[in-house]
Design a protein that fits this description.
Elements (H helix, E strand, L loop, with lengths): L10 H22 L4 H12 L6 H8 L3 H13 L3 E5 L7 E5 L1 H23 L3 H22 L1
Antiparallel strand pairs: 1-2
Length: about 150
């Protein structure tokens, strides 16, 4: 393992390695989908979001200006990856949702990795799988908190 001041057996470094490997997978999938890395990342944020995101929230997650976020959403919408919908509670605001095309493509692209992860998880006892799942979700929340 390369890197400066790494201790390979520490959880934090394992998480950093996982994040780097995930970024490699994302770049590969983006290329296969003919998307820029940024457009793919936007699509992935929309796909995994717990709550609907609007263009402003998506732009904030990606560190984009309002104008750049609008351009990104326009590209994704024109390519058939997302659709805009007016919010029911505030008709002046929009939410973005992935299209069936986007969802099916993402799931197809992730299928092999998902199956490999499921096989690896299958070697764990059910309580271990729950513990790992809970830990990964907590680590994701920590990452999001530090991103803000």
């Amino acid at each position: 393992m390369g890197g400066v001041n790494q201790q390979p057996h520490q959880l934090a470094w394992a998480v950093h390695h996982l994040a780097a490997a995930a970024a490699e997978v994302d770049a590969s999938i983006a290329r296969r989908m003919n998307l820029s890395a940024g457009d793919y990342l936007a699509l992935k944020h929309l796909f995994v979001a717990d709550d609907p995101l609007g263009p402003v929230e998506l732009g904030r997650l990606l560190g984009l200006s309002s104008g750049a976020a609008t351009g990104l959403v326009n590209r994704l919408e024109q390519a058939g990856w997302v659709r805009r919908e007016l919010r029911t509670d505030d008709r002046r605001r929009q939410t973005l949702t992935t299209t069936v095309k986007a969802s099916e493509t993402l799931l197809r692209e992730l299928r092999s990795l998902t199956e490999d992860i499921d096989r690896a998880a299958g070697r764990l006892a059910p309580d271990q799988r729950r513990l790992v799942t809970d830990a990964l979700l907590e680590l994701a929340q920590l990452h999001r908190r530090h991103a803000r």
